[in-house]
Amino acid sequence: MGKVKVKKSDVWIDMTPMSDVMVLLLTFFMMTSTFVKNEAVKVVTPGSVSEIKVPENNVLTLLVDKDGKVFAGMDTPAKQETLLLDMASKYGISLTQEQLENGRGSANIGVAMKDLNELLSQPSEKLNEFQQVRGIPTDSVNGGMSEFQDWVTAAYDANGEEMKLAIKADQGTPYKVIKKMMSELQDMNRNRYFLITSYKTNSED
């Protein structure tokens, strides 16, 4: 008896729905992702078990490196530009459009106001290299406000009282530097701020 041949049929799978889903997922992640900014200095934040999250919007971050140098930066380029313009106006400094573009792209600003023009005239890839050895002065001038206090005041003036303040310090930052910053903030009646730390579980103790 001869063998019965089973007719083979091609299996065809429509991949269109899968492609649509992949495109939608890719678009979703692109729209909701937050890109890491290239900060002026790298800091290793101290660990804590606090689960309080720092807001992502309308935040002025005060970055402090292990040597005690202070840098300030807003959370968006547009707000960073507004802050720069306000500070430049206060100190009688003129900024070109190119300098403003450099300032918009910088995550932090950390120089004395007398060096602001020179900082923003650097190529964008050299900004951090130029400012990381300087920092915003925290010493008051002639018994008045310090430049650090002026930066904080300008940020609140531009963004309102709803703006949040966050301090991101290195775990090796001298305590006296943090204490001085907190003292200057207290003098301004700015007693509410976030301290950015790395989350540490109890098992890591």
Task: Throw out a few tags for this protein.
alpha/beta; four-stranded mixed beta sheet; 7 helices; 11% strand; 205 residues; two-stranded parallel ribbon
Descriptive notes:
With 205 residues, this protein is an alpha/beta fold. 37% of the residues lie in helices and 11% in strands. The chain has seven helices and six strands. A hairpin with a 5-residue loop joins strand 2 (59-64) and strand 3.
How would you summarize what this structure contains?
This protein is of the alpha/beta class and 205 residues long. It has 7 helices and 6 strands; from the N terminus they run H-E-E-E-H-H-H-H-H-E-H-E-E.
Could you outline the blueprint of secondary structure elements for this entry?
Layout: H1 16-32, E1 47-48, E2 59-64, E3 70-74, H2 77-90, H3 97-105, H4 116-120, H5 127-131, H6 147-159, E4 164-169, H7 175-187, E5 194-195, E6 198-199
Parallel strand pairs: 1-6, 2-4, 4-5
Antiparallel strand pairs: 2-3
Helix pairs in contact: 2-3, 2-6
What's the assembly state of these chains? single chain
Helix fraction by DSSP (H/I, runs of at least 4): 25-40%
Major sheet summary line:
4 strands, mixed
* Distance separating the two termini: 79 Å
**Rg calc:** 25 Å
Instruction: Summarize model confidence as the mean pLDDT.
Output: 84
Strand/helix succession: HEEEHHHHHEHEE
Shape: elongated
User: Pairing-aware structural class of the strands and helices?
Assistant: alpha/beta
According to DSSP, the number of beta strands is 6
Strand content bin: 5-15%
The largest sheet has its strands arranged as 3-2-4-5
Low-confidence stretches: none
Number of helical segments? 7
